[in-house]
Amino acid sequence: MDAPLFQVYITAFLVGFLGGVHCLTMCGGLVGSLTLGLDARIRAEPWRMLPYQFAYNLARVAGYGVAGALFGGLGALLLQLDSFQVMQRGLYAFAGIMMILLGLYLGGWWRLLAVAERLGLILWRRLQPLTRRLLPVRTLSQAAAIGFLWAWIPCGLVYSVLITATATGSPANGAGLMLAFGLGTLPNLLGIGLLAGAAARIAERAWIRQVAGLLVIGFGLYALWQLVG
């Protein structure tokens, strides 16, 4: 892996981690419902829920990897339409702009990316009935199946990083980037599952969301600066 791509992976991980404050507020209710969706015998002993929380989240990260491969493959097709260097630089510039928009979204200053989430609801309405068939969750395979479907919930944070996956111009690199992003989200979403509402209440503090937003904006500006430098 060359250094620039490695930097992109690290950035994706940090965006996932910092953007997790958005996950805490948006997905907190979902995680709670998944916990309640576990068989009562599993919920009766809290320590038994841990493998199911990992199954939900690792399958969710795997779903991100599949989406990254699809968007990376789309990027590979786009790169064939024009000069490789020109098209790739254009995609990375677009990814940098999307990161800035994401930072504004996280900080609560401009919610343009909420439009992407509303559009994504069309896909989610088709997938949601599948999750109902898997409840109550009695096995780890059921938890993993729900977790994989969870990856396709409309989310401006995820969609923003998918643009960067497109810019990699490769299914493998796109998958790797989204896996790095997904791993960054793990601490926050596991925190919801294990600490109930405490983690979500912390994320609701405006200054935490604003600091995370500023840092993500910084990543976007740095990506644009690299292109012109």
TrEMBL record:
User: Which segments constitute the Urease accessory protein UreH-like transmembrane domain?
Assistant: 11-222
Enumerate the InterPro entries for this protein. Answer: UreH-like_TM_dom
Pfam families referenced in this protein's UniProt entry, alphabetically: DsbD_2
Protein species of origin: Thiocystis violascens (strain ATCC 17096 / DSM 198 / 6111)
Which UniProt keywords are listed? Membrane, Transmembrane, Transmembrane helix
What is the recorded name of this protein?
Urease accessory protein UreH-like transmembrane domain-containing protein
- Tell me the domain of life: Bacteria
Q: Where are the transmembrane segments?
A: 6-37, 58-79, 91-114, 135-163, 175-199, 211-228
